[in-house]
């Protein structure tokens, strides 16, 4: 099993016979996984745009001037 299915199974076992708590735990799991995925996609997009990896030296005029984790206030992230 991968991390996602393992987390689902742990939430199911931990919230046995309590459907509202299980639904809340699953919604939080989906939200956190969506947030991780979007941040990884944005990081990859920046690498492709700048044409060099993080911490690499480049003579390019575009720089990686730091980054921050984006958070989204939607139902899942």
Automatic annotation (TrEMBL):
It comes from the Bacteria. InterPro entries: Transposase_mutator (IPR001207). GO terms for biological process: DNA transposition. Pfam families: Transposase_mut. The keyword Cytoplasm does not apply. One of its GO terms (molecular function) is DNA binding. The keyword Nucleotide-binding does not apply. Keywords: DNA recombination, DNA-binding, Transposition. Required for the transposition of the insertion element. Belongs to the transposase mutator family. This is Transposase, Mutator family. It comes from Sharpea azabuensis.
